Amino acid sequence: MTTQTLAARGTAASLDTLEDLVGHEDCSVEQLCGEMAKVFRVRGQEVALLRVDRLMLKFLYPAELRSAGAIPLSSSAIAARTANNRRADYFNNFASVQHSSVFESVKFAVSDIPNSEMDPQVIQKIMTVPVFGGGNRVAGVIQVSRKGFDLNSAGPDFTPDDLELLKQIAKVVGVFLSRNV
To answer: How many domains would you assign to the chain?
Structure first.
């Protein structure tokens, strides 16, 4: 069996797992985002799910960012551009991309890493995709990041295949958002 065949099976299994999870009425945003973190082998706080609420993007996950503020759709933030342009993208050198780092300074109550000194890490790599709801309107944005002290400590680069998988996951998340918003 080729590596590509194994990857395709893993992708299908990941999508099936997420579809099953969303199929349960009691599926929580924490469960959904936790599963996405497993799929991409990132920490829980490296997954963000935002929903469109009027002219703003509001964080649904992680919980610590819910009260940290919202992102105006009119801003130049990556999440706002993703929603407005309706296009997925990834940046494997995100620290050099001009962006607002206000949300990166939020401290997380529970870390996936026992050493709390890991918290000052910044986003080094990120994928961002729109989530479509009913009527083909943008209902939200998913962002998956890799944090680190530098590019090497953040882990592997995201690939076009990773982005394609996240786009497929966004379809499942669209079902979740339409039911839970």
So the answer is: 1
Classify the C-alpha dihedral 157-159-165-166 as positive or negative.
positive
pLDDT digits (tens, 9 = 90+) for 136-161: 999 999 999 999 888 899 999 999 99
Mention every residue, 6+ apart, whose C-beta is less than 8 A from residue 92: 125, 151, 157, 158
Helix H segments across the chain?
3-23, 29-40, 63-66, 78-85, 160-180
Q: What share of residues in the chain are helix, strand, coil (percent, to 5)?
A: 45, 25, 30
Cβ(130)–Cβ(137) below 8 Å: no
CA separation for the pair 128, 90 (Å, rounded): 6
What's this model's pTM, rounded to 2 decimal places? 0.84
Here the CATH number for the domain that contains residue 149 is: 3.30.450.40
* Predicted confidence (pLDDT) per residue in 29-57, tens digit: 999 999 999 999 999 989 999 999 999 99
Cα–Cα distance between 26 and 160 in angstroms, integer? 32
